[in-house]
Each structure stands twice: as C-alpha cells, then as structure tokens.
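User: Integral membrane protein, Cellulomonas gilvus:
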Amino acid sequence: MANPVFSNSPVFGERTRGGGTLVAPSTIDAASLDRMYGAPAATTRETGRMTYDDVIMKTGGLLALLVVVAAGSWALVETLPWLWIAGAVVGLVLGLVNAFKREPSPVLITLYTVAQGVFLGGISAFYEAAWNGVVGQAVLATVAVFATSLFLFRSGRVRVTPKFTRWLLVAMVGYLVFSLLNFGLAVFGVGDGAFGPLRSGWLGVVVGLVAVGLAAASLIVDFDAIKRGVEGGAPRKMAWAAAFGLMVTLIWLYLELLRLLAIIRGD
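Assistant: Predicted structure for Integral membrane protein:
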C-alpha cells in the first residue's frame, strides 16, 4: 500500500476523482492550453481540504441528532428513569476516547452525540419538572451566548493569543478543582442546596456566571482553531473533529446555563 502522505499530497501527484495520479500529457494543443488557463482555480473542497461548510454541515447534523435523541429520552424518563444516567456514563467515556484519538472517528463521534442526547433529555426533564420553563430559557440563552461569542470573534474584538489561551487553561483547571471540591462536600453532607454547598445562593450565581464566561471563551478558542485549520489546509476529515469540539463546548455551556437559571429561580 502506498504511503498516504505521498499519495494524498499535491506535491507528489494530484489525485483524480477515480483515484489515479494525474500525469501531464506529452503534447498539448493551443485550444486545450487556453481552456486550462481559463478554468477556475480548484476549491478547497475539490482538493480534499476542510472547509467552513464541512464544519457547519457536520455540526448542524450532530445538533439535529442530539435534539431528536434528547426528545426521545425525555419521553422515556418516567418509564426508564435510569436511562439518562447510563447516557451520561457512556457519553463521558466516548468523549474521552474521541478527545484523545489522533484521527477523528465519525462513528464514535455520532455515538457520543447519541449518548449525550440520552443524558440531556433525561436531565432536562428533571429540571423542567422542578423549574417550569427553565429548559426553554437555557436553550435560548445558549443560542445567545453562541451568537455573541461568534460575533466577538468575527469582529476581532476578542483575539485568541497565547496569553489568552494560557489564561483560559488556568481558569478552567481552577474551575475543575472548585467543582470537585463542591462535589466532595455534597457527598459528605456538608451544607445544603441542590447543587452543593458552593453552588447555592449568590455564590452559586457568581460561580455560574464565571462558568458561562469560561464556556464562551472556549467557544472563541474553538472558532480560532477551526479558522486555522481551514486556512492551513487541514484534511476534510478533520471537520469531524471540529464538529466534535463544538458539540462538547455547547453541551457544557447548556448545562451551566441550565444550572445557573435554576439557582437564580431558587434551588
């Protein structure tokens, strides 16, 4: 089998649609030469590179699948109350597997989306039963934060610099440690509140706003990574990795907004 680095590289031979290598003819007439010069340049899609359309289509498809599965899980929450917990566990495992894979796997990314849809449907039903209307508010807030983050990135008002990336990494590690501490205190019965002693009242609101800010900053970093991938000529299959990254951040953002709104309305 040929080395894919060479066989797929335009430097060592342009691949034709049939899979063969394009070889220059020994002779060419003036009319053919004129048509060649007049032909439009090959697009990134024709050269097998990732495009913004690839990322948008795959992300949109995964989001549609997520919503459909979540709706089904919501409908089954009373019949199979444990189903959303299984979805959370499977989603976590598949998320880690996809995150550490060198090459994106469309099948594993799709299965991750299905598992997360099962989880989100069940937990959203729980929130809606306790705080009527909170799910719709969280969905609208997620869309608003996503649109705002995209606007800030596209307008250049927020630039992804090495300093910005380091700050975000440190902040996210700090938030993770804080969340683990809050979970540990809740497990051992320290304090009260539906979301743990450190996520209740005004402290919970402040922490929730910080978490939403971190998720929004993560979206901006995701947008920058996608831009660099497209401009750098990343392979088209990497659109799956880009879509997976956006899905992870959007799901995290939605869950944080869901919890923040519940705290504001009284946990």
